[in-house]
Design a protein that fits this description.
Helices cover 47% and strands 12% of the residues. It is an alpha/beta fold and 643 residues long.
Length: 643
């Protein structure tokens, strides 16, 4: 860690260099404190520019200090010291100014940023609130509405949006250091604005705060930090600065020791480690410059979209011209949806689609570095695809299957150069869901495996390596979860009570609501396929419903009834009648015991998966459940929650 102070005439350029992300560890805090003292003592200096070396401004706290007692100088004191300096400081932001990094920037009299930069206060994503004035200075800087958006969501905003919100003073596009120096010189020719802590703030009326509280509570689904952050912001808008600071600090310290913060730290560190697993250290991945997808259905189109979002040219192969046209249409609708949500411009969507070459000629795959098969979940169909790939693809091209349940070893049987084969299990919709299960077979080379993880990084996915078993990690646990939920129904527990209990635990939907949304026939067909192969698969309650034509929302009824055009589930007398012969007639499980019971079942299956070597760590299982199956992030995953 180094801090350099250089003179540019009457402007001091203070450069922080603490690779890789200029994290605010104790040494950096101490060094910056001393830099303020040095600048104050230099009579030739009239202002200072705070800038960072490397790829980013101060990106936040030092994660190695998480969970440890803070060591002085404490960050709130450092922010106050910057703000109280006799000579104005200008924060020159590139990359990201997050958390404590943005609080440092707010301690400066001015803030300017490169147009590619972002600022934010993501502390709620770690189960805490900002602890160095983020909830107190932000409303004084940008107004209470902007502060509530920034702090309670935890989402960063890009420079242009930050400027419009009032979070920064200027956006620059060229030489940040030169522009910041020029900005500081211009600032010295005008009266300085008051420090952020001295700026006025007004509070909306009680009705506005009540509306915010309801909206955030609905979004948080049991997560505490966003609501506590809102409370801090209200105090900041209604009380003197010092009183609001004391309230923020007390809230920060209380939440830092909470179970939710511990769970979110667990997930944070697991996510941080996932893209670069230790067992692949030193293994160079292959380069992926182009990719192809076989199959243009919902899954294939989603995979193609995520590849295009990462900038890769894509070949999309279907069985005939009609299917090719449908695949392109599905892909176009994905990009159109992104435009409607403001994620892409029309021009960007057109460019995404223009980067796709579609057809039914496998010869288009001759130069592709990666081919992902995403056809129907039928072993014969998949094997036929790979037989054709073996004929047209380069020997070093990586060939991947997107199977959810089938044994990848059977799919790859007879494939030349099996070391280039791997399972890449995307989750639907593939362009949205962050989880990617990476499933090697025995013949898969370390280089191919490393390439799978490198691909996940480039796609912005959370990769988890899985061994081979029915359903790999995620679907195997899902099967156990659903089976246990059905067992509760057999014992007399109402379907709606089970769903309500899991929503109360933090899931967006209960197990039966989720099945109705996705379609009961999907798992039913998988079970029927296994039975056709001679496997002993017990009958499920879902089989009874599918046999009666109830496949979920798409048929107007599954576990629940649905009015035409509606998605609101209504308890079904038809289902009660269908299931009556197999329900014991008992009182069922107490509502308060349902969620702990089902989570314990998930964890028990996870322990079996660990014992069999299907997962490499308990943290990997938690990542799968959080990013693939809606397990509440703030509970840390089933393994963490039951440890």
């Amino acid at each position: 860690m180094t801090i350099r102070i250089e003179r540019d005439g009457e402007i001091a350029i203070v450069t922080l260099d603490n690779p890789p992300v200029n994290a605010l560890g104790q040494a950096l805090r101490q060094g910056l404190w001393q830099a303020v003292e040095t600048v104050e003592a230099d009579r030739a200096v009239r202002a200072a520019v705070l800038i960072c070396a490397g790829r980013t401004f101060i990106a936040g706290a030092d994660v190695t200090e998480f969970g440890k007692p803070p060591v002085p100088p404490h960050l709130p004191d450092l922010v106050d010291r910057l703000e109280g300096a006799a000579k104005p400081w200008v924060a020159a932001i590139h990359g990201s100014a997050l958390g404590g990094g943005f609080e440092i920037a707010m301690g400066c009299r001015f803030r300017l940023a490169l147009d590619s930069a972002a600022v934010g206060l993501p502390e709620v994503s770690l189960g805490i609130v900002p602890g160095a004035s983020g909830t107190v200075r932000t409303p004084r800087l940008a107004g209470i509405e902007a502060a509530v958006e920034l702090v309670t969501s935890g989402r960063p905003v890009k420079a242009a949006r930050a400027l419009s919100m009032g979070l920064i003073d200027a956006v620059v596009t060229k030489d940040l250091r030169a522009e910041a120096g020029a900005f500081a010189r211009r600032a010295l020719t005008h009266p300085l604005p008051p420090p952020v802590s001295a700026r006025p703030v007004s509070s909306p009326g009680p009705a506005w705060w009540e509306a915010q509280q309801k909206a955030i509570a609905k979004r948080a689904r049991g997560e505490v930090a966003p609501l506590r952050a809102l409370d801090c912001l209200r105090i900041a808008a209604e009380k003197p600065f010092a009183e609001a600071m004391a309230h923020e600090r007390a809230t920060f310290l209380a939440l830092r020791a909470s179970d939710q913060a511990a769970a979110l730290r667990h997930i944070f560190f697991a996510e941080r480690a996932a893209p670069r697993p230790a067992h692949l250290a030193g293994i160079s991945p292959g380069e992926i410059r182009s990719a192809a997808v076989i199959g243009g259905g919902t899954m294939g189109a989603g995979i193609a979209a995520t590849l295009r979002d990462a900038g890769l040219p894509v070949v999309l192969i279907e069985r005939d011209d009609e299917a090719t046209a449908r695949g392109l249409s599905t892909l176009g609708k994905i990009f159109d949806g992104a435009v409607a949500r403001g994620k892409l411009t029309d021009a960007q969507a057109q460019a995404r689609l223009a980067g796709v070459t579609a057809g039914c000629d496998y010869g288009l795959l001759a130069d592709c570095d990666l081919v992902i098969e995403a056809v129907f979940e039928d072993i014969a169909v998949k094997r036929a695809v790979f037989a054709r790939l073996a004929q047209v693809c380069r020997p070093d091209a990586i060939l991947a299957t997107n199977t959810s349940y089938l044994d990848p070893r059977r799919i790859a049987e007879g494939l030349p150069h099996p070391e280039r084969f791997i399972g890449l299990h995307f989750f639907s919709p593939a362009n949205v869901m962050k989880l990617l299960e990476i499933v090697p077979i025995a013949a898969t080379s370390p280089r191919t495996l490393a390439t799978g993880f490198a691909l996940a990084r480039s796609l912005g996915k959370i990769p988890v390596q899985a061994g081979i078993c029915e359903g790999f990690i995620g679907n195997r646990i899902l099967k156990r979860y659903r089976a246990e939920a059905e067992n509760l129904v057999r014992q007399g527990t109402p379907i709606a009570a089970i769903d309500a209990a899991m929503r109360g635990y933090g899931f967006a939907m209960g197990p039966f609501e989720a099945q109705d949304l996705g379609g009961l026939d999907i798992a039913y067909l998988q079970r029927e396929g296994a039975r056709a192969l001679g496997q002993r698969v017990p009958d499920t309650l879902g089989d009874l419903l599918v046999g009666a034509g109830r496949k979920g929302q798409k048929t107007g009824g599954g576990w629940y009834d649905y009015a035409p055009g509606e998605r609101t589930p209504t308890p079904s007398a038809t289902v009660a009648s269908l299931l009556a012969p197999v329900i014991s007639g008992g009182a069922g499980m107490a509502v308060g015991d349902i969620a702990p019971h089902l989570v314990a079942a998930m964890a028990a299956e996870g322990r079996s998966i660990l014992a069999e070597g299907i997962a490499l760590s308990a943290a990997d299982i938690d990542l799968v459940e959080v990013h693939g199956y809606g397990f509440p992030r703030w509970r840390g995953g089933p393994m963490f929650a039951t440890a």
